[in-house]
TrEMBL record:
Database matches in Pfam families: TPR_8
Protein's recorded name: Uncharacterized protein
SUPFAM superfamilies, sorted: TPR-like (SSF48452)
Annotated keywords: Repeat, TPR repeat
Taxonomic source organism: Methanococcoides methylutens
Amino acid sequence: MAKDDVSKIVERYIASGRSEKDVERKEHYFKMALQLQPKNVHALNNMALLLQQERKFREAVDLYEKILSIGVVARPYPVYYNISLCLKSLGNLEGAKTYINRALAIKPDDEIFLELKGEIVDLLSSGSKESAPKITSNALEIGATYDEWDPPAVSTLTSQIYYADWNDYKYHRGLGETDLHEKFVRNKLEQRVYRCNSCRYFSAGTCRKKGKVGRKVLPDSICKSFYPEKH
């Protein structure tokens, strides 16, 4: 079989795996792709993301490390990030710190990387492998006017606005393909274009989000539940 024909078949297997909802069938398609091209980084990355989603973190790390060893990924920081996430979940905090530092060496201002490193450092400092529960704006009294600037993570907004779901976003981020969308969202936040009065839940100075209905909010504030009315 010609090399071009094999590549086309592999691409079809990968596309079928990505669109498939059943986990076993997804895995089947990715394995078929890897049987034909064991070093196909797209197939490896998809399989690794699936294993990570299924909490098979050790197996996922093995595949991510294989991607790095092949040496064709020009921008490996998303792979470093995913390895760090997996190692953190496995309780290997020092290893997780090593890999997130590698990602930050390439993109030192990436807020998603910085957030993960902060979590890892906190866990190392406390000696605990359990994160403390976070208090969100939902816990505030409904009668008080909300006036804080507490936006969602750039990754959260990017996944909601531009991608089918979180897994779709992670797939594209794993290939380093989300940078432009993340930059657009980050700029909107920095310029205060994204704020309460541009949120789909904002109406006449109040919030219509479930659990916050009727709560007064200042137009130039923002909370974790923000979602742009138009994008």
